[in-house]
Each structure stands twice: as structure tokens, then as C-alpha cells.
Amino acid sequence: MSESQRGLLHCAIVLAVFCLAIGARAGEDAGNLLSDGGFESGKLDGWKGNGEVSSDEAHSGSKSVRLTGGSITAELKTEPGATYKVLAWVKIASSEGADWGGMRLQATDTKSLAHSDWLNVGSQGKEWCKVALGFKAVSAKTTLNVGFFGGPKKMVAYFDDLRAFRRDGENRPPQIQPRLTPTASDRLPASQSFDLQGDDPDGAIRRVFWDFGDGQRAFEAAGQRRVGLPGKFTATVTAIDDDGAMTRATVAWSAADAQLPQVGVRTPAAAESTVAAPLVKLEGTCTGAIQKVLLSSDREQCIPATGTKAWKAEVRLARSGQDLKVAGRDSARPRRHALARGRGPLHGRGGSYS
After folding, report:
1. pTM, whole model, 2 decimals?
2. Can you list the alpha helix ranges (DSSP code H) found in the chain?
3. CB 3.0 to 4.6 Å from 286: which of 115, 157, 290, 327, for a disulfide?
4. Cβ proximity of 334 and 291 under 8 Å
5. Hey, what's the torsion of the CAs at 101, 107, 112, 114, to 10 degrees?
6. Which one-letter DSSP state was computed for residue 206?
7. Domain 263-348 is in which class?
8. Where exactly are the structural domains of the chain?
9. Omega prior to 174 cis, within 30 of 0
10. Distance (Å, whole) CA 68 – CA 318
């Protein structure tokens, strides 16, 4: 299957909680089994419980439901054997007391069909986050319970844009737009922020993984990092939804510093090569007051080169591909490294070496 196609089918519990910088909600349709999931009427029509409609917070529109250590329930008309999905936006405003328990979504019949993990400050912070819950109906009526299920002595939370619908079609992948700021730096070290805008049209984004192309990675949707290597890079972000559908997007960025020494690779000339021997010879040049040239690989090798202005090195390859990088350490700033370029993957072929 492709990255944008359906992942694993879930018939029981499906949960995702993730916080993103969200723009417009994508792919929302009229097939909502809840009559007023956004609470814009100002009333709890179709709901029972001790929540109250509030204009203090809202994910969209002007209202949401405020729960203070309580819960609300709604009855869904369901078909036995059919699969359903419930989506909700939640914001934990405050929490006091124990660090277990909290808010959650739960689908019940005569017994619990599915429930989310605890939603609390520790698991998601105090920003709006999307929750997705999937279940398989066993009768014509299913109760959706939203709210407090023990733990902290007092918790205040807001729920908005609740949506319940039957899952009949193919799972749609997340729709994302990554952003790096800045995308070009002319002085190192530099600071770079990253964030991800988007949503999943029929679920929630469960995991996000950033690979910035310079050896650094992140498992958060947004944050800030330190850039220390010059060069041209491509950052790749991967987002996976609660049903396993995956989307990737890229952002090109670069960093430079005229005061850094420059390292070049002359042999092999191609960025990707295949060799038929266990050893590969590399040659190159350096500018500036280089004290040492080092080669490193993704197989945890570290090989010093001979020479500086004109350097040489031999690397023993594994049978499969491996990535090599060349760095020069200068005399003025011995802790600063200049990246030449990734030499890889270099593929070993034939022989009995490993």
C-alpha cells in the first residue's frame, strides 16, 4: 500500500491525541450523528449531564461545553456490526490533585465498547488537541460518554466540535503543511523553529516525526532546535493518523557561514556509488586552518583521514549501503565542524566482507 492509503483496520479501540497548529478543518461533512457537536445553539440539545455551554473557550465558532469534574452523555443511533468514529477537540484548562485519571471519551452499550486514554495536562498540555475514538456497534443504540472519570480532585476542561459518524469509506490520510523558520541562515550556530499545520479529515494525527536532513530529528510537531552544520538540506516530516495512514512532506533549507572552513570530496565524484571491494578510497581538499579531517558513518565508524589541505582515507564497507560524512575541525574554533556532504549511500557488492 502507498503512504496515503489505508493503514491497519481497527474494530475495537482506536485512539489518537495530538496537538497541532490547526488552520481550517478539512474534509468535514454533514454526516454527524450528534445534532449540535459545536454547541453553537447555546444549549445542550441531545446531551445529558452536568456540563454547561460556555463562551470562555472555543476551538471554532464562539462556544464549547465546559466540564468541571463532570461528564455529559449522548445516545447514538448505530447499526450492529458497523464501525463508527467519534472526533472531539478538548482543552484542559486546569487540574488539581492526583496525576492519574482525567477526562476521556467512552462508547458504551451494556458494557464498554471502547474508550480513550486519560486526557490530562500531563498527556497533552493546555492547548486544544484532537481526540479520535473508534468502536464497533453491537446494538441499535450506543451511549457516548464525554468527561471526567476520576483522578485529580478538580479538573476543568472544554470540549468542542464533537462529531460521530459511520466509517464506510477508505481512510483518508492527514493533510499537513510543515514550516521551518528561517529556511536560510548565514551565520552559525543558528536557531531554527519548526511547526506543523494541518489536520486529519476523518480522524486524528497520532504521531509526528521530523528528520531535518542534518542528522537531527524530533518527535514533536513543533519546537525549536540549534543548527550547527552548513550545507543544503531537506527536512522531511511524517504524520500518521489513528488508522495508520501516513503522509510525508518536505521543506528545503540551508545554512552557511563564511568563517567556517570548507571541506570538499573529490573521489568518489558521485554522491552515491557501488563498489565491488571491501574498501573504498576517498580523497578531498580543505580550506582554512584545518587541524583534522574525520569521516563518520551510520555504522558508528569514525575514521581519521591523513592530511588536511589534501586528505585521503580508506573506509571498510558493509555489504549493504551506508552513509558517510566528512568533517573538518579548524584551529580557531576546535569545537566547530564543517560538513562537506553526505557521501552515500555507498554500497558494498560481492566478496565475503561485512
Report:
1. 0.71
2. 121-124
3. 290
4. yes
5. -70
6. E
7. mainly beta
8. 28-166, 175-255, 263-348
9. no
10. 60
